[in-house]
Amino acid sequence: MTRGTTEELYHSIENRIIALRMVAVDETDFIYERALTIVFKENYEAKQELKRIAKRINPSMLEKQERFYQLDDERSFQSRSAWMRVRRLRRKQMLESGEHFPQRAVVFDIPSQVENQSDSKQKTALLAELKALPPNESLPIVKSLTSEVFEDGHAPTESALAIEASVSTEVFVFASLDMVGNRFVYKLTIKSCLESIITDVTSTIVAYPKECLHLSTDYVKVQPRLEIGGFLNESFVLTPTKDCVEGNIVAVVSYVDHQDEVHTVQVSPYIIRSVCDLLQPYESSFDEYQDVFRGLVGGADKINLRWNASVILDKAQTVLPLMNFYLLDVQKDIVDEQIYGKIRGFALGKYTEKRVAVLMKVTGAVDADECVAEVEVSGDDDAMFPTTMGEIADKIDAWICMQCGARLNPDQVMEIEAGGVLTCRYCSHTLTLDLYCRSDQKPRSRSLSEVSVLGFEGASTELVDGAPASTSTHAVMTSESAKIIKGVSVLRGCELVGGKFEYKVKVRNESHSVITNVAVTIVAYPRDSLTLVGSAAKVMSRIEIGGFRSPGFTFVPTKDCVRGGIVAAVTFIDYQDKTHTIHTKPFTIRSVCDLLKPVKSTPKRFELSLEEFDGTSEEYELDWNPAVLFRRAEHFLPSRNFYTIDTRVAVEDGIFSGTIRGYAEGKYTKSKVAVSITIEGNELENTSVVKVASFGSDEAMLPITLEDLRKGIDSWVCLNCGASLSSEQVQRIKNEEVIECRNCGHSLNLTLYRK
């Protein structure tokens, strides 16, 4: 098996694990038989692919083994999680329809169940998938869970392996968090369920607990495209600045579909609570330990566990050192068939060096499958206590290797419960049910997995705006581009300043409360011709009631022809901690002339150049006097960065004819552009025929050049200096008033523009 083949298998397994995550998270699209089919099929195929990889892994390849184990654990956790979600939704369906739910465990054949369904539309495809599984595999025959696992139609929280959330039928996003060294790595997995490619996949961190974490990477990660059915991962690194980390990480993912529409998926907030990962063992005396308990504040929590007391003490001796506590002592006494145990640990924060002392008391009958654990925590910082107690409770209640503390996945747990002998992957310790059980009753962990928060697609709050997209590079912000959601409006504008495009987004808060974590993210722009200077996101901590912020972004052209749209997404959190996203209307840039510079030339060399260039032209009528229009063209062409080669004017039998030619080159590619403007018409009438031709070595520049010139020729300018007139000045001239040019002071009236 080649390296490429192995990576393809890993990629396929990850894709199947994502498919398991997506099962039964959307109640509106839930079909019981189809959901079961997906769970069994994806789990089976993932296991087969893992077997193929396992045959090729050498025991000395530690990194590859670690990756293999992590994938297998994830497959096991997500398979069980999917199964529990399916059972919960099925239970809910049966309760709502009045169907009988089995009270005892039963065995049923899934293909037979599908055959008996009245809905024949789903039957053929489901049976085909199920029957494709090898007959010697036991996967299609399943033992159902007993009804006592469920209460009131819902699986208890301790049985849920993941927090359910709605899933987009288009793009599915979920978040995960790992501790790597002393840093947290927040990872977003983005899966496309669309039948077309999506582009500009932009992941943005909107909020995180800034008082205890520092974002070490950029707020924004962008992938140019995501293939049909593909997935990708984006990671953000957060560095702790305190020993106690607690808060929410909020992110959004935006993308552009095949119709150039922008969508945003709001990822469910990831709750991060960690103390023990940020501790270091502190070897102290028993007296110092006692002083901490006597002299400092503390807290306690009592936990009822479905484990034997002796087993919990054994697990605690393994778990506490792994949680960075120094073990001072372990006591275990048996009085009248009752176990009384104590275990003490001590640690210091890595950053603040604040002390944390733990005392855990365990009581329970010698042969009972239940016990009570009381966890007391004392130290210098009371903010660390609740999180520390919660982490300890979670770790001692989990199925772990009694030797090295590695967490067991659901498949391994079932193997042990069935009486099998398991060898730990990490330390090769032999694990049997006797290590975990002291009676005929099997222990019941409250949870079989670590916390996993799935993403969901929120309403992308896209309002249809009937205003046309601006094509001007000099446009100012107007209310026409605003989208208002609960009093929050967003406007955008762009202007060319010194050869750079300055794009601004104005966020105004006219709601009745402060909005926080306002993130403005550039989702899409013409990357082939523009480069974004700086970060793609600007994050503002808050905008007060009645206030506004106007973050700006600078784009530098990389080509002489810029054409495309700039789209931004604005995400904020309201006073109810709800996340909202607003998409700006695309700002369309079509510019060539702004990115040119004049090139001096002679008429002869100009003519020779035209022979080498491609060309295009257009002809149209304008309601202007030809002589007036020609005077305007004489001023306009230099203002658009063309060098005037020559002008020719002739009047014959009352017909005016004038031609002006110009030459320029691109500032970046040095591509040459030549233009010729011919204006004809009756010299006493206000109608002209205009023919504009453009020539150049870059064909992409020619249509935009024609469009740019047409807009300029038809505009109102001072006939003396060529300065643009405002709409107010134009209206005064039309009202037959005399005005002065603000630029040169020349007097302007209607007779200069109309005959």
Describe the protein in words:
The N and C termini lie far apart (84 Å). It is built from 14 helices and 37 strands. With 755 residues, it is an alpha+beta fold. The protein is elongated, with a radius of gyration of 36 Å. It has six domains: 1-161, no CATH class; 165-274, Immunoglobulins (Immunoglobulin-like, Sandwich), CATH 2.60.40.10; 278-399, TATA-Binding Protein (2-Layer Sandwich); 401-435, no CATH class; 479-591, Sandwich (Immunoglobulin-like), CATH 2.60.40; 596-715, TATA-Binding Protein, CATH 3.30.310. Helix 2 runs antiparallel to helix 3 and helix 2 (32-54) runs parallel beside helix 5. The strands form nine sheets. Strands 11, 12, 13, 14, 15 and 16 form a six-stranded antiparallel beta sheet that branches. Strands 19, 20, 21, 23, 25 and 26 form a six-stranded antiparallel beta sheet that branches. Helices cover 25% and strands 36% of the residues.
Number of strands: 37
Give me the Rg, rounded.
36 Å
Query: What portion of residues is helical?
Result: 25-40%
If you average the pLDDT, what whole number results? 81
Categorize the overall geometry.
elongated
Poorly predicted ranges: 104-110, 117-123, 133-167, 447-484
The helix-and-strand class reads alpha+beta
Terminal CA distance = 84 Å
Count of discrete alpha- or pi-helical segments spanning 4 or more residues:
14
